[in-house]
Amino acid sequence: MTKRKTVRPPPAASTVIEREGRPPVEAIRAAAFRQFAERGYPVVTVRDIMKACGLTQGALYNHFRSKDELLHDIITSTQAELERICQQAVAEAGDDPSAKLAAFVRAYVMRHCRLRVEALVANREISWLDANRVSDIRRSRRAIRDVLVGILAEGVASGVFSPPKVEGREDLKTVAMALLDQCTHVSMWYGPGGRLAEEQMATLYVEMALRSVGAKRPTN
Fold it and tell me: What are 58-68's pLDDT values in tens digits?
């Protein structure tokens, strides 16, 4: 059995989150993200989470009925925000497919660099949720994928993109999933203080995405 890889969150400014003036529900969410990222969902107890945020154990039940509901809440919230950010970035990029793809990848990678703990929990711990709880999360992920597929389809139709083919045929959904996997896993290893800042990392991933789909460069 292989040991699960963890991402260590940055040290907290204070061991008691409520001293920062954060509303209790937000303190609980932040502590849950950190605890689940460091130790994994199965071994973390409600007591652990509430101790980490400096609240009593009973305070959790004022907002969440169970640890399962808390996990669903934090994954749903971060997933919904990712969907919103990606859609907004594309909407503001104009009509050019290359600009849309660049905006999408940049927004996606920047978020996964900045919110590494949230991304780790959302992608690793989702397997502990039952089918009913996970359905809305998967819907949001399909929506993000479909935005990317739409961009690729526009680029192919306009002759701007020439992605790889299999037996002479394009499979844009597979290409989109490959790009998303590449961008998502930056959260598994990227950390602040390295050679590349978040903006530089996003720029690099944009360039890789454009090359992957055979984007034509404008001629001078």
Answer: 788 888 888 99
CB 6 within 8 A of CB 37: yes
Specify which residues 166 forms β-bridges with.
Answer: 169
Go through the domains of the chain in sequence order and give each one's CATH number.
17-60 (1.10.10), 67-212 (1.10.357.10)
For the record, the structure tokens of 24 come out as 């209790």
pTM confidence score: 0.84
CA dihedral angle for residue 127, residue 41, residue 11, residue 52, rounded to 10 degrees: 140
Residue type, 86: C
> Both tokens of residue 160?
């701007």
For residue 166, the SS3 value is strand
pLDDT in tens, 120-171: 999 999 999 999 889 999 999 999 999 999 999 999 999 999 999 988 899 9
**Of residues 44, 41, 61, 63, the one with CA closest to residue 129:** 41
Structure tokens at 170: 């394009």
